Amino acid sequence: MKKIGLLFMLAIGLYSCGSVPITGRQQLNLVSDSEVLALSLQEYDDYIKTAKKSTDKTATAMVEKVGRNIANAVEAYFKATGSESLISGYQWEFNLIDDPQVNAFCMPGGKIVVYTGILPYTQNETGLAVVLGHEVGHAIAKHANERMSQQMALQYGGAALGAILGGASAGVQNIGAAVYGLGSQVGVMLPFNRKQELEADHLGLILMAIAGYDPNQAVPFWERMSQQGGGNLELLSTHPSDNTRISEIKKEIPEAMEYYNAIYGKSAAPAPSATPPKNSNTNSNWHF
């Protein structure tokens, strides 16, 4: 029994090597990207077939514009850091759904959904960039993969050793259904944990800055959400508290502003070649 446990821990060590872009946090990674993307795409396709898309052309165009800007920021960052392969399977898509829920989500692979119920809180493109930056942050940090891996380790323990070594996770289908739950949860994925939520906030600030949106506007957005109670927004689920979230965002804004200033300076147009922010985890090839 001890030998099996040791082998399982060795397998975890060998196959769990992964780190989050920008923050560099090490994370558990037992499920292949291809499995995660296949599951998420199926869940998304099933959901979008029955979802009611908004007929508001202006709002829909804004979602598509901001979503594309955030997606471009992601692609620029990964290209600049020589890590394009990490998002090679992403296919960006942006939909505004006519639903009063105060919510939005981005599935692994870049499928983004915004509910009309959140637009009164975002108010403008920059507010929307806060939301989409956060959601895309979850996707590029592969939080769904991490969450599935954690569930697999908890539920299957040593029994998962053969599956991990064989390159196929026996419980991925069931765990994936529980993680995504788009059908049963009416388009709301099960809550991320506190660490992942705060990390998505952090990544979102960086992404919106690279996309040309002022990171300082994240604070007013979250204050509006806090004052209004936040509805069913996944971003304001049980983790973290409003005060904690706003406090952490304020600490991270200077880092995001380094990206913003390095790329855009004080002008509205991007600089032709931006230098890497001094506190970033980018390499020396950071430029656009």
Strand content: under 5%
What's the mean pLDDT score?
A: 77
* Class from helix and strand fractions: mainly alpha
Distance between the termini: 54 Å
Reported for the largest beta sheet, the result is: 3 strands, mixed
Q: What order do the strands of the largest sheet run in, or round the barrel if closed?
A: 1-3-2
Radius of gyration: 19 Å
Q: Which series of helices and strands comes N to C?
A: HHHEEEHHHHHHHH
How would you describe this structure to a colleague?
By secondary structure, this protein is mainly α. The protein has a domain at 2-193. The chain is built from eleven helices and three strands. A hairpin with a 3-residue loop joins strand 2 and strand 3 (111-115). Helix 2 crosses helix 8. The longest helix has 24 residues, at 57-80. It is globular and about 40 Å long.
Describe the structure in brief:
The chain contains 11 helices and 3 strands. The protein has helices spanning 2-15, 33-50, 57-80, 119-122, 125-140, 143-156, 161-166, 172-180, 194-210, 218-228, 242-264; strands at 93-97, 104-107, 111-115. Strands 1-3-2 form a 3-stranded mixed β-sheet.
List keywords for this structure.
mainly alpha; disordered N terminus; 54% helix; 288 residues; 5% strand; 3-stranded mixed beta sheet; disordered C terminus; single chain; 11 helices; globular
SSE layout:
Blueprint: H1 2-15, H2 33-50, H3 57-80, E1 93-97, E2 104-107, E3 111-115, H4 119-122, H5 125-140, H6 143-156, H7 161-166, H8 172-180, H9 194-210, H10 218-228, H11 242-264
Helix pairs in contact: 2-8, 3-5, 5-9, 6-8, 9-11, 10-11
